[in-house]
Amino acid sequence: MESTTAGEWIAMTVVMTGGSSGFGSVAAQRLRDSGATVIVGSRAESGRAELDLTDLASVRAFARGVAERSEDEPIGTVLLNAGLVRAHDRDRTPDGIETTFAVNHLAHYLLLRLLLPVLADGARVVLTARHAQTLPEVQSRRIRLVAFDPGQVFGTGLARDLALPMRFAWAAMGTRLGSPVRAFNPHMNTVPAAGRALAGLATEEVGFPGVAPPGSGVREVGPGHAYAALRRGRLSWTQPSALAQRPDVAKQLWDDSAELVGLPR
User: Which GO terms describe its molecular function (predicted)?
Assistant: First the structure.
């Protein structure tokens, strides 16, 4: 668990996955420079996984450690940015789940649910969703199939497309989060541009000044925005697909994910 604090005025903590490389590391550094305490869950250099998203036991242990620290400093932001893309769906996690699905969706679902009790009021959650508009029809039986045998359904592509409907799942289930949950699509932008945009989304309305660059569009966000897409260096707010907004899809996704990680619906 990597933690860095810059400055003493800040009273919020950022918990992040996917913050050790790429545009995630840019976002993490901008947050540190603004005075945030940033906890990045990642594999240790020694090979010991402080947060191994392929192992649900590791996710639970990481969440416990974060919760213990939150007694002194509230968690104001959660960035679920880690993800992977495999050319095949043959790999399985120690829990027997297809690896892409486990890392990109299920581990993040579990982490966020475990952190819910220790989030500050008004906490912001941002989920990176690179292909969120291409979600195929989701049925309860299909979610379970894609977790354990995705080749029988429609491959690992589904796992990369779950973040946006998950945003609506949180709102539909009446958690403490609701509208502060947003999905972010970095598209094919430069690493610095995507990092700046992610940091801006993570901090706006949470109390970190000076993170979002002028003209980025971050400070133009209204309460109804949920899906931010970065195109040609500028953040825009895109209307999600009708399927992504369906309450029945959100509830199925929530319920099936809960069953897979052993939590109540």
Answer: oxidoreductase activity
Q: pTM score > 0.85 for this model? A: no
Burial 230-251 (b: 16+ CB within 10 A, else e): beebebeebebeeebbbeebbb
User: What is the pLDDT, as a whole number, of residue 183?
Assistant: 75
Burial of 68 (0-12, 13-18, 19+ CB in 10 A): exposed
- What's residue 234's pLDDT? 74
The DSSP annotation for 162-203 comes to -HHHHHHHHHHTT-S-STTEEEEE-TT--HHHHHHHHHHHHH
Q: Which of 114, 244, 85 is nearest to 169 (CA)?
A: 244
The rounded distance, in Å, linking the Cα atoms of 81 and 108 is: 9
Residue whose C-alpha is closest to residue 77's, from 192, 184, 213, 190: 184
With vertex at residue 139, the alpha carbon angle to CA 137 and CA 145, rounded to the nearest 5 degrees, is 105
Classify residue 184 by burial, with Cβ atoms within 10 Å: 0-12, 13-18, 19+: buried
Q: For residue 241, what are its two tokens?
A: 């697909």
Contacts of 124 (CB under 8 A, 6+ apart): 76, 77, 78, 180, 181, 182, 201, 202, 203, 204, 205, 206
pLDDT of residue 136: 46
Q: Looking at residue 255, what DSSP letter applies? A: H
Q: Which CATH architecture has domain 2-261?
A: 3-Layer(aba) Sandwich (3.40)
- CA-CA-CA-CA dihedral for 68, 72, 77, 78, to nearest 10: -10
- DSSP character for 125? E
Q: What is the mean pLDDT of residues 182-199?
A: 77
